Amino acid sequence: MLSERRWRFIHFTFACCFYLQDPMIKGTFPVDRFQTLDTPFYYYDMELLRATLDTIKRETENRPFLIHYALKANANPHLLKLIASYGFGADCVSGNEIRTALACGFTPDRVLFAGVGKTDKDILTGLEHDISCFNVESLPELEIMNRLAGMVDRKAQVALRVNPNVDAHTHRYITTGLDENKFGINEQDIPEALQTVIEAPHLKLVGLHFHIGSQITDLSSFEDLCVKAREWQKRLQKQGIKLPVINVGGGLGINYHHPNHFPMADFEAYFRLFERHLVPSPGQSLFFELGRSIVAPCGSLITRALYVKEGIQKNFLIVDAGMTDLVRPALYGAYHHIENLTSEEEMEPYDVVGPICESSDMFAEQRLLNRATRGDLIAIRSAGAYGETMASTYNGRELPASYFSDQL
Ligand code: LLP
């Protein structure tokens, strides 16, 4: 029998061979319609989002799994309303995100509130709406939560975020589960935290929370997480502590290099892994907080070529989108696949750069694109997560607009 990992490897190798034979394939976009719009803007393929949500629903409906969409990935109301219509919950990190989630149709009994630095105001917002759970990240936060809940005469349902010291093998800025991280409570402090919650009159323990990082493509990191979660599950069971929820966070990665061949994360393998490696006790549910894998593939940043500047050894393609619209390449050196939607000419290498006064305002270095001229429409793919939500107005720029395939 071939192991699951070996199967994945074989699948990946075949897929790569297939891709190499067909490097020119491009996404499908309503280019004529795009010609009439001001750039840059985000374009969302709602059919792909729907197909993604259908897949997740199918994979989870017969399992004790509950999806909470992480709004930080993309809080565009049009997307949120569709996601909420699937009955999923919301994972929020501020009072504003809680309000946005509720306004878009998520119900309070499925709203989680996470974050290392929740303000009193934000905690009170969560309490006022009777949200399902606060993911608590430190001992001092527990004390404040208890005090604030007492003030408004409520009981806050809490999950303790355990820092499981599991390596997510991802970019160091988006790994969160290693020891001495600002996130979560170190394992040695968990017994004290548990005691505090149990004794606190205005807190109710509902679960444990884990999140090891984002853009995780090596699924074995999730297996390591399951081992840790199982240890805690058993430990608490022995102590007679009821744990209705184990929240395993988010982090499932997508294929940024080949969006046309892999438009969806491998949800089947992901959920099967949890089913195999983390069996809930009777009455226990597994919560997931997926962000990127739900919305990244369906979004593209559409921009226009402003100038092609010939350098000494290379050509710069200067486009009208910048790091203010999509900061991931500048901030993490992240890769996004790029296509010239309006040229079929020969491929040429370009440094694709934006107009912002920062050297890091660059989307790609020496990237092969169909020969570009002023006015060409360029798509920066897989930008649906952490694109629009991280946009800024630096340099006095406008925030990017957004358009949807079901409204164009
Ligand atoms: N739960 C918690 C506690 C998180 O911190 C995050 C993401 C998620 C869930 C959702 O993770 P996802 O499924 O999206 O990987 N701006 C970075 C990513 C930062 C992730 C922050 N936390 C990027 O553009 O790659």
Note down, in words, how this protein is organized:
The chain has 408 residues and is of the alpha/beta class. The protein has a domain at 47-295: TIM Barrel. It contains twelve helices and 17 strands. The chain has helices spanning 4-21, 31-35, 46-60, 77-85, 95-103, 120-128, 139-151, 190-199, 220-238, 267-277, 292-295, 328-332; strands spanning 41-44, 65-70, 89-92, 111-113, 133-136, 156-163, 185-186, 203-209, 245-247, 285-288, 299-310, 315-319, 338-340, 347-353, 362-370, 377-380, 401-404. Strands 1, 11, 12, 13, 14, 15, 16 and 17 form an eight-stranded mixed beta sheet that branches. An eight-stranded parallel barrel has the order 2-3-4-5-6-8-9-10, surrounded by five helices. The model has no long low-confidence stretch (mean pLDDT 93).
What is the topology?
Blueprint: H1 4-21, H2 31-35, E1 41-44, H3 46-60, E2 65-70, H4 77-85, E3 89-92, H5 95-103, E4 111-113, H6 120-128, E5 133-136, H7 139-151, E6 156-163, E7 185-186, H8 190-199, E8 203-209, H9 220-238, E9 245-247, H10 267-277, E10 285-288, H11 292-295, E11 299-310, E12 315-319, H12 328-332, E13 338-340, E14 347-353, E15 362-370, E16 377-380, E17 401-404
Parallel strand pairs: 1-17, 2-3, 2-10, 3-4, 4-5, 5-6, 6-7, 6-8, 8-9, 9-10, 12-14
Antiparallel strand pairs: 1-11, 11-12, 11-16, 13-16, 14-15
Helix pairs in contact: 3-10, 5-6, 6-7, 7-8, 9-10
Return the structural class.
Answer: alpha/beta
- % residues in beta strands: 15-25%
- Largest β sheet strand count, sense and barrel closure: 8 strands, mixed
What fraction, in percent, of the residue positions are helical? 25-40%
Instruction: List the helices and strands in order.
Output: HHEHEHEHEHEHEEHEHEHEHEEHEEEEE
Question: Nearest-angstrom radius of gyration?
Answer: 22 Å
- Average pLDDT over all residues: 93
Number of strands: 17
Shape: elongated
CATH top level class name of one domain: Alpha Beta
Instruction: Write out the CATH superfamily name of one domain.
Output: Alanine racemase
CATH architecture of one domain: Alpha-Beta Barrel
Instruction: Examine the coordinates and then state which fold CATH places here, giving the name of the CATH topology of one domain.
Output: TIM Barrel
CA distance, first residue to last residue: 49 Å
Which stretches of 5+ consecutive residues score pLDDT under 50?
Answer: none
